[in-house]
């Protein structure tokens, strides 16, 4: 024990039992960044009874994301051989369309439906609610093989539950570090734990219903993720390869993870997109002039068009950097004693990558608080390059499995919206870039937006 404590990187002291938890505010990534100024780029602190190491600069983050001893999640979050499940998940998602044009077609159809909801005769639109419904449909297509009508009560309930879970995540995050406190909170129904429990139940029973429907369908075709998982399960059973880790419960857990991870992240990124489009109308015009040159105003965009749209891509890179929607990644755990740079990381230490610090490091980004898409462009604007230290989806063998899907969605939403509308706010509206931080970092004051139809000659 003494050896372990001594071998951790230095860091701030906390209180007995709770450690540094009581000192953490709403925007933990800012505090983690501040602490790195005092203790160095890699330091440790105690959260509850857990030793946690923070990684806050690019050289160490680069090293850590390529370290095979840092691929695990905390014991409470993983529980099954994730490597196999991850490989299978990616394989199934690829079969049903991820990385192929099938998914692009379905996403485009969904966006067509979404665009009609922005048409409000020049009146303002509650964008966050509308995009959240639309993005939920995209994940539903991937997982369940179908989407929902926007006024379907099941879709409304699941979308609201997901949003509530996401905004309570700071609270849930604290619970992850204090399991004993979490059981007390639920037992005595403190805070709004009862509501939260209900939200989890809504999502859970929705996924359960979908699984039952797929089982009853009993078809050979693999159209979606649940089909793929059930087919693999059946083929294993036929080969007598019974495996407790391959069960309906695990399928439910995986589907929940995709549902949770694929909605809030895209909705929040799109909310930042709207903020910076209305804050800088000149960037809106630049994207629209690329649309005019490459796509025109009649044809639907293809994801492939991005290759000829450097400014649009530069804008998306800068949104990822300045928005830092996933400001610090999901917890990792050291599966054996290891090192990050010269720092010792003992087995079972939890590790947090603070992407925020890297995204705002003035050594990497001159004037880091400025929103400036041109930082990715060649001098004449003809080429765009993403630097290696911009990793919104994390990096290495446990990076975001939804990255490809997310890239397709973001490009198509932005281009489809600007091909049809000029995005505006009411005159005199203040546009704030302040953030709220729950499961993701999103604008705290997205103004109500006006989508003004543009004529094709523009
Ligand atoms: C702008 C959009 C998104 C961003 C910025 C983002 C970012 C991330 C990051 C940083 C991680 C943690 C990786 C690590 O531990 O190093 C992650 C994990 C994950 N993401 Fe995403 N993501 C996005 C969209 C999506 C979408 C659309 C999906 C699904 C369709 C998805 C599914 C997942 C899943 C399932 C995990 C957990 C993977 C694992 O434990 O192995 N994400 N994401």
From TrEMBL:
Cofactor: heme
Membrane topology qualifier: Peripheral membrane protein
UniProt-annotated binding residues for heme: 400
Cellular component aspect of the GO annotation: endoplasmic reticulum membrane
Localization of this protein: Endoplasmic reticulum membrane; Microsome membrane
Gene Ontology terms for molecular function: heme binding; iron ion binding; oxidoreductase activity, acting on paired donors, with incorporation or reduction of molecular oxygen, reduced flavin or flavoprotein as one donor, and incorporation of one atom of oxygen
SUPFAM superfamilies for this protein: Cytochrome P450
Pfam (any one): p450
Alphabetic keyword roster: Endoplasmic reticulum, Heme, Iron, Membrane, Metal-binding, Microsome, Monooxygenase, Oxidoreductase
UniProt main location, coarse: endoplasmic reticulum
One GO process term, biological-process aspect: organic acid metabolic process
Family annotation (InterPro entries): Cyt_P450, Cyt_P450_CS, Cyt_P450_E_grp-I, Cyt_P450_sf, Cytochrome_P450_fam2
UniProt keyword Flavoprotein present: no
Membrane-spanning ranges: none
Function according to Swiss-Prot or TrEMBL: May be involved in the metabolism of insect hormones and in the breakdown of synthetic insecticides.
Family per record: Belongs to the cytochrome P450 family.
Protein name: Cytochrome P450
Source species of the chain: Tetranychus urticae (Two-spotted spider mite)
């Amino acid at each position: 024990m003494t050896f372990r404590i001594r071998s951790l990187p230095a860091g701030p002291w906390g209180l007995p039992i709770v450690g540094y938890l009581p000192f953490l505010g709403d925007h933990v990534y800012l505090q983690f960044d501040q602490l790195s100024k005092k203790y160095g780029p890699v330091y440790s602190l105690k959260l509850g009874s857990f030793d946690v190491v923070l990684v806050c600069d690019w050289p160490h983050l680069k090293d850590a994301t390529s370290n095979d001893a840092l691929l695990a999640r905390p014991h409470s979050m993983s529980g099954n051989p994730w490597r196999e499940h991850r490989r299978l998940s990616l394989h199934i998602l690829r079969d049903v369309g991820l990385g192929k044009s099938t998914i692009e077609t379905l996403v485009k159809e969904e966006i067509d439906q979404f665009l009609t909801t922005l048409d409000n005769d020049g009146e303002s639109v509650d964008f966050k609610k509308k995009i959240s419904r639309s993005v939920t449909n995209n994940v539903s297509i991937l997982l369940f093989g179908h989407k929902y009508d926007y006024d379907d009560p099941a879709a409304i309930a699941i979308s609201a539950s997901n949003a509530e879970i996401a905004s309570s995540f700071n609270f849930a995050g604290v619970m992850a570090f204090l399991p004993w406190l979490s059981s007390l909170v639920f037992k005595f129904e403190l805070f709004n734990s009862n509501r939260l429990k209900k939200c989890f139940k809504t999502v859970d029973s929705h996924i359960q219903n979908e699984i039952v429907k797929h089982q009853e369908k009993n078809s050979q075709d693999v159209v979606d993720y649940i089909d793929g998982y059930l087919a693999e399960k059946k083929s294993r059973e036929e080969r007598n390869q019974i495996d407790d880790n391959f069960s309906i419960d695990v399928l439910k857990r995986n589907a929940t993870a995709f549902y949770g991870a694929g909605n809030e992240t895209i909705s929040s990124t799109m909310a930042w997109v709207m903020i910076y489009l209305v804050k800088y109308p000149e960037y809106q015009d630049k994207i629209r002039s690329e649309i005019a040159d490459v796509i025109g105003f009649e044809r639907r965009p293809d994801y492939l068009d991005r290759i000829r749209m450097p400014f649009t891509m530069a804008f998306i890179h800068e949104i990822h950097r300045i928005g830092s929607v996933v400001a610090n990644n999901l917890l990792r755990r050291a599966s054996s004693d290891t090192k990050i740079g010269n720092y010792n990381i003992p087995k079972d230490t939890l590790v947090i990558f603070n992407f925020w610090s890297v995204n705002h490091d003035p050594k990497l980004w001159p004037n880091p608080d400025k929103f400036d898409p041109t930082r990715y462009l060649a001098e004449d604007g003809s080429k765009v390059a993403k630097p290696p230290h911009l990793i919104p989806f994390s990096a290495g063998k446990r990076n975001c499995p939804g990255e490809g899907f997310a890239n397709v969605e973001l490009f198509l939403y932005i281009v489809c919206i600007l091909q049809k509308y000029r995005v505006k706010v009411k005159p005199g509206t203040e546009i704030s870039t302040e953030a709220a931080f729950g499961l993701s970092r999103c604008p705290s004051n997205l103004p109500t937006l006006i989508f003004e139809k543009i004529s094709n000659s523009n």
